[in-house]
Structures are given as structure tokens and as C-alpha cells.
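[09:14] KT: can someone run the structure on this one? pasting the chain below
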Amino acid sequence: MSRTLLQIALLMSVLFGSLFVYIYQPVLWKPFELKLKDQMLLLRGEVSADNNIVIIDIDEPSLKQYGQWPWPRDRVALLLQNLADLGIGMVGLDVVFAEPDNSSPKRVMQNLGRSDDDLPDFDVQLAQTIANTPTILGYIFALVDDTIAADVMPPAKAIIVERNKPNQSYLLKAHRPILNLPVMQQAAYSSGYFNTVPDSDGVVRSVPLVMEYDGLLYPALSLEMMRIAFDESRISIEYEDQGVSAVQLGDLRIPTDQFGRIMVNYRGGAYQYDYISAADVINRTVDPARIEGKLALLGTSAAGLLDLRSTPFESVYPGVEVHATVLDNILNQDFIAKPMWVMGVDVLTLFVVIVSLGVALIYLASLWSFTVLAILLAGVWFGHFYLFTQQGLLLHTWMPIVSLVTLFLLGTVINYFYESKQKTLILNRFAKKVSRAVVEELINHSDNLVLEGKEQEITIFFSDIRGFTALSEAMSSPQALIKLLNRYMTPMVDIITAHQGTVDKFIGDAIMAYWNAPVAIEHHADEALKASIEQIFALTRLNQALQVEGIPPINIGIGLNTGLAVVGEMGSSGRSDYTCIGDSVNLASRAEGLCKTYTAHIVLTEFTLQQLAFGDQYLIRFLDKVRVKGKAQPVSVYECLGFKHQAWYLISDAEAALYQQAQTAYHQAWFDQAFDLFNQLQTQYPQPLYTLYLERCEHYLAYPPQDFDGVFTLTSK
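[09:31] RB: done, C-alpha cells below
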């Protein structure tokens, strides 16, 4: 299967797999989605809370002053009466008085079997206060079967209407109510439950606005307070195919999830609202301006009373503030909603982002594919973040992100597999022609930036076959000559590449190569010299085989120089090559030409000699100080005769000492003494090099030079 078909198959698998999990397996993604939305709220930070909502807090100072909860009901009655006297608009009780007050004098005397005539009943006092103040009672529903049967129904003042109700009701169903004492419940203007139902991870993110019990519907405390505040008698529940869509309160539409729950748009961490200590209200030390006309909830922030919840902002959060936030959301119409059409948007989002990334993986390089991934991830995250925190629109975020990352990782693996095969093909095809290092750089850096021209120190190599014209004439046919050249070039190139060199080009019978580009090579001068020495030994073995075949032997000269050169891809727009240019390259070529002059196999310049890290491994002798054609500055050149332990010409200590004396005399312009010393060398150790110096000494003796500096100027390449 081709790479494109495999990528298309992967794209379709991820797309349909994501859609299936999103639609049919919400249990798999919902915990992660909830955590993502929590993080969005945290990133949004705190927002201003409505200062018309206050919390009357049964806090730690109140408990310290008035004792443990529950307080005597006459004290609670005093608290509510003081709130009314201070002009409170409405107060909802986030507490339930389900048991009689055993501290009431009437109750105490009854328990003692004594007469209770004319003794105060604190429960009745509280009921009277509730009846005479703008107080809305709170109660709770038991949501699980605790085997206790209910003996009374909650009072319902609101008219709740269901519109377009399906056969199945999606509202939460209660097992039984836990109500206030009948005397209080009957005296109250109205009441509502204050249940909070946490998600599976224990975090309270939503509150049910309406619940069902024994076939009847009941409002939450916050919803009932808003109904009374808006002077509405009716609450409408709107259904769509997937369940509840909204709760209608007059002209106000409150969006909910399918179970009739409002998602709480928290203002931040705890204590976003004005907390007024219950003790200050009882003592009447509170500023009336903090009370007058406000909506209040009576609850507790004291840890010992266990009315603490976990929210996206904090793990310890007063439960009463959850209901205060719901009041705030309804009062300011600041909702977080997930309309039914959001599912269509989520499906479209999944389709667009997955297909976009899939196309990028098919047609774009890895870097651009990653860029597309980053853009899509950022678009999904920041788009959903804005819609959630600024517009209150709840879109699904986790599935697109996971699908994109999964598709990218698997798609990259597929591309890597096919690119690896392609790399192997390229390497096998071109590594025999050019350096493997160049091929790998071209493959690994498709942007070609690494191939742009730059100045770099390199060691340059030139080799050339001596007497190639005569060799060509000795061959029987052009095909035979080409075959011979291939037999020669193959081991030479193999040696260069084995020592990490880059073969630049073949110039007829000549080879040009260099080290330390395009990749850095440690001790590149040594690698170049080692490769040159091995080529001479390889040529010796080749000549032995040629001799058996009756083919003339091949003799070569090698020139080495180290220096700065411009290295990079050069040529025309349609045809280019990775090569090097500069004076150092020209000097290497001149060094190769000196092999013929000095009858040497390997000639290296002083610059290469200086760069040798392991100079003591080679047998090297000074040749001359020359001024090559095209350069004004003289350069010292040297001959390498092989490794010290393996040389094609071994120089004894006596010969080396005599040669040093001869060179010293020559450069001091003592030509008669130099002539005698070179003559002695030629007699004992005959070599073309000594013959060359004898001829120079004879010339200078016959024609003494003026201001001799020991530099020999070459007039040809």
C-alpha cells in the first residue's frame, strides 16, 4: 500500500473512531472534558460578583460567641428579624430545621413531665418570624433509597409547566424530602431545595434547578427566590429531543443540560461575595448599607458544620456560595449553556480539523505538518476558551485535541517509515558517487539551509594519474580504458569515504575531495593524510594485479592543503553542485602538481602539517619552500612517505641527518657545500629529489642569485 493510501486509511479510522466515541461513549471522555473546562475557568481567573447578593455566614466567630450549631430557634428568629429590620430584600435559608428545638422551655418541661403552660416555644417563635419576614425556607431531597418513608409532601407555591415533554423524563428524581418542621413549613411564604449534585470526581459544576418527587416537580431554592423576586407565578420547563433544554422564568430563559441542571459560572475562589457574620447581625453591629435591599442566603463557612464543597477553583468551598453564584448567574443572565445544536458544531469541528491535518500529513513535510497541528490545536483551544469564558457556550474540546495528536503521531510514524525507505534508496543510489555525508545532509535538511555557502576550514585533496596520455594509448580500446579507470577509482573513493571525506568531483583521471564539510570531522587533516597513504598502498596492490594482466602500472600524485574555503551549493539555477572554492583549494591543486616536480606520491603544505594531531605517526620530510604560480607568498611543502611503521621509502637516521645539513646549506645560499652534501646523498641514497637539488646548486653556482631567500618560484602549474 502506498503512503498516501495508508494516510487516507488512517485519517478515516481516526475520524470515524472519534465520532463514534464522542456520540456513543461519553463515559470515556467526559471526565477529561470536565477537567479541561475547569482549567479554562482557572485561566479565565476571577470576575466580579454581584454586590446585590450577600451571605449571612454562621462562621467560626459566630459559633465561638453563641455556641455550637444548631442554635436555639429564638436566636435564629432574632437573626431573621434583625435582617428584616435592616431592610433585607429576601433571605433564603441554606439550612433545614427538621427536628424540634430541645432547648425550647416548652420542650424542656414536656420532657420533664411538668406543666408547660405559658412557656415559650422557640419553634413557634421562629415560625412566626419566618411568616413576618421575607424568608424563603430551604430543604433537601434524599436522592438515594435510605429505606425511610416520607410522610409529607413538600409545599409547592410555584406552578411548574412542562412543554413538549417526551415519554421519558430526564429530570433528577428524589427518594424523599427532608423538610422543616410543619409549623415552620406552613408559616413560610415559600421554600426550595438546596441540593448540590457533584460530578463523578466530586466537583460541583452544576445545580439541578428542578427535581421530580412522586410525580410532582419542585424548584431549587435559588430558582424559587428568583421567581419571587421577578414576581412570576409560573416556571416552564422546555424539552427537546435529547431532554431538557431550558427553564423559562417569565421572559427569562435559563439554559440547562438535558437533566435540568444549570452549569455554575463561578466567579472565582471562595468569598467572592460579601460575607456578613451572623453574630454581627444578631448584635446589630453590621452596617445597614450592607443589608438593605439585598438578596441574602443564610448558610455557613465553618469547617465543623461540613457544608463545604469542591469546585473548579477550590477543593474547599462554602456550599452556600454555590447557591449564591446560581442566583448571580440568573440575576445577570450570565449562563454557561450547551444548546442541542452544539453537537452538530462538535461533529463539524472534528471533521474539519482531522481532515485538515490528514491532508497536511499527506502533502506537506514534517515541519509544516507540525505547524498545521499547532495551528489547529491553538485554534480549537483558544476558540473554545473564548466561547466558553466570554460567550458562555460549551463546546467539546477534549476529543478534537486527542484526535489531532493521535492522527499526527500515527501519521508521522507512517511518514517516517516511508521516508526511511526513501532515504535508504537515495543512499544506496548516490553514496557510491558522492560522500554519504553529503547525501545524509541533503536528506536531513530538506530546507537546504545547511548547503548555503559559508566559510569553513577544510582539508582539500587532489590526486592525478601520472602519464595518463601514455596509459590511454597503451589500452586496446576506450572501453578498456574506462574499465581500468573504474578499477582504479573505486578503491580510491571507498578509502576517501571510509575516512569521512567528501568526494567533490572527478576531473578526467583526477579526483578532488575535502574533509570537514558539510559535517564537522574531528582531526580532518589526519583523516585526509591517512586516506592518502592508504590510497598509495591500495594502488600498489592494484598494480600487482595489473602486472599479471600485462597492463601498465598506474602512478599517482596527491596534494593536500588545509585552510579556509567557501563551501556550499554552487552553480546555475538549473544545475548546481556542492563544492568548495578559494585560495586554499587552488593551493591544494598546486601541491598535487608539485608531486611531479619532486617525484613524490604525497605532497602536503605547511598548513596541513600544522593541523596534524598525530604528526608523530607519519614519516614526513621537508621538500622545499616554493612560490606557486598565482600566489605571492611562499609556502613550505613536505613529502609524506607513509606511516613510520609502514613506509614505501624508509629514511635512515644517517640519511635524515645528512639531508637536514644539505637543506640548511642550500637555504643559507652555501651552494658549493650544499652541492657536495646532495652529491653525497645521491651517491649513497640515489633519488630523483637529490638529483633535482644537485641541478639547482649547479645552476646557482654558475649564476649566483641576488638576495637569495631559499624560495623557489614555480612558473607553471
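[09:33] KT: thanks! The radius of gyration is 48 Å.
[09:34] RB: yep, looked fine to me
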